[in-house]
Give the backbone structure.
Amino acid sequence: MAKQRPGFIADPVMRARAVSPLAGHIETGQFGVAVGQSPSVRLGERFGLSIAEVTAWKGRESKCRAAIKATASAALKVAPGSGSVKTAAGAFNIAPMRWLVSGESPELVANLADAVSEDGTVTDLSHGRTVIRVDGEKSRWVLAKLFAVDLSDAAMPRGNGLATAHHDIFAQIQRVGADAFDVYVFRSFARSFWHLLCRSAEEAGYRVD
Amino acid sequence: MIITCPHCGPRDLAEFTYQGDATLSRPEPASTDQEAWNAYVYDRANPAGEHREYWQHAGGCRKFLVVTRNTLTHAISGVEFAPATGSSRRKRS
Ligand SMILES: [Zn+2]
């Protein structure tokens, strides 16, 4: 399948060779957990995902949403922040006419580029983002230390997301479960952010698998 | 100060970047009218009261906004996406 792709579609991440910026910096185990207690936060990296940003040309938003649905099986509503999450793929709105799409399939970005075609642009971010999952009963409590956004059930239904920042660390956050959130940060900030997240979660007691 | 972004909702000032006076009209790009360019680049009314200004939601949706803000009280009476207002387009004379 030697199809010609535009230059901004990077080669798929070679999982066998790719190295996470967190490699060697993730310490597994339980931290900050008092004797007889169990951790109330779980932290971990979702490594090797295909990640892309889709931007619609003016008036082509619904066609881009349809392309995302066809490629990542994510049905998207029109409201700001609307998203959808399945086991293998997900997507959420991050700005007017823009969506962040991610998934397990190495072909996701290429398929997305084909589906979106002339209705928008697809930028491969697989090499550029690190995805950290924050789960557990105190996930919101830990994230609230870092981000001044509303992550409550009412404000953010499962699948929805938003774009925000912790000082200069730009972050996109998607709710992926009852208490689970995926935080997308630039890979160059990943190590610093991971460190910050671990220190922030220490008070609650956290586990890294 | 909290700015309510039309896309993201209420967000802290730290997420936004000030981008200047939104009341000015840029001269035609080909214009050689020195006075018009001088006025566009340097003349500022500096009002004590309501002011229209550009802000970018750099730590969020990254859209450019036109914010109507009272410079005395910081009260914000309006926030819109910049292109929709027409203020970012040059006026035809
Ligand atoms: Zn915004």
